[in-house]
Amino acid sequence: MQDWQALGLLLAREPAVLVRVDQVEGSGPREVGAWMAVSAAGLLGTIGGGQLEFDAMAQARAALAAGVVAEPLRRFALGPSLGQCCGGIVYLRFELLGADHIAGLRERLAPAPLMRVALFGGGHVGRAIVEVLARLPIELLWVDSRDEIFPAEVPEGVRTEHSDPVQRAVQDLAPGSRVQIMSFSHAEDLDIVAACLQRQREQGDLAFIGLIGSKSKWASFRRRLEARGFTADELARVTSPIGVPGITGKQPEVIAVAVAAQLLQQA
Length: 267
Description:
Blueprint: H1 3-13, E1 16-25, E2 35-38, E3 43-45, H2 50-66, E4 73-77, E5 89-97, H3 105-109, E6 115-120, H4 124-133, E7 138-144, E8 158-162, E9 178-181, H5 186-202, E10 208-211, H6 215-227, H7 232-235, E11 238-239, H8 252-265
Parallel strand pairs: 6-7, 6-9, 7-8, 9-10, 10-11
Antiparallel strand pairs: 1-2, 1-5, 2-3, 4-5
Helix pairs in contact: 4-8
């Protein structure tokens, strides 16, 4: 469940004050757009914790008790007075919300996507990566040649696509997509990589091409792709192995975290 959905459930029961980071000067604990919702007894989300959040919660509950937000935009200096050493200035916007605001929460609060990711492969690693990426503001397309491989329910924001042959889906990817390749067979992986390189040759609009596997797998793929006519410069656009260097675990969950971290470095 996304945070904005959880807020909708909260507002169906009781009003809350939405506190959002409106502006930051210098260093701050959270970015512009970060938010929390404060009800009479509960809290959803965070604007960074510490004394800033504590004071904002107190002011939000005072507004709840009064039934009105008297000062919608408030300035907080993160210095000695708040006991926080960030050193910047944070402007917080306060807004009283009720059940009549539920319908517009997604447009108001859902974060803009950081990136588009196309994941080829519905195996154990693919599923683990989907679970991690689905928690992030990422548009995720999940592709496999086996239609039955996808779970009955997928997280919100994840779109599944059955494509046979699987590489045919490459031509329809959104421009700027970051491609992660980990199908059930090396033959499919090779065809997907080749399709991505061909698209790069013709359109040059894929932001990343990543291939799971060992260095020896990529060496074998390089020879086969060279035989298909791809140049060294074109092959240099493929990242293999994928994931943040230095993380050596082979468990699907470990690989998923390493892959997600590598993608976030590109955001």
